[in-house]
Recover the amino acids of this structure.
């Protein structure tokens, strides 16, 4: 379970109900409140999507090791209440903007981030824009 207020990530064994906590946050990371708005599994790692957190956190599901990513793309300014979930397309995590000005794609192999904000003509994104997304095998919705 991904922490919003909680001080750690919780893993629940679905066979036994046993719960394990993980809070070995990367150096320099201060979780704060309203930290994450969900997580996305890429087949090996869970990527925690920042709501108020200053970075994306990847947790290795076999070791519990955590890595932070905050090399935001040019033109993007991390503020708060930025993303509301994400989707995995087989290679990248796409973070869905809540207040953020951009959709952010993070490559799961390199951690490189790319921003997209060429909204359709006439669309006014505003605040609280989206609350999740989906991947249909070709496109993010």
């Amino acid at each position: 379970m991904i922490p919003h207020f909680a001080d750690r990530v919780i893993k629940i064994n679905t066979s036994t109900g046993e719960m394990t906590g993980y809070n070995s946050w990367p150096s320099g990371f201060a979780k704060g409140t309203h930290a994450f708005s969900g997580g996305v599994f890429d087949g090996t790692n869970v990527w925690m999507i920042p709501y108020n957190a200053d970075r994306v956190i990847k947790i290795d599901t076999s070791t519990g090791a955590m890595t932070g990513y905050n090399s935001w793309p040019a033109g993007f300014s991390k503020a708060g209440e930025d993303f509301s979930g994400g989707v995995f397309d087989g290679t990248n995590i796409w973070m869905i903007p809540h207040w953020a000005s951009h959709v952010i794609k993070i490559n799961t192999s390199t951690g490189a981030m790319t921003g997209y904000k060429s909204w359709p003509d006439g669309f006014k994104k505003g605040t609280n824009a989206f609350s999740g997304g989906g991947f249909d095998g070709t496109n993010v919705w």
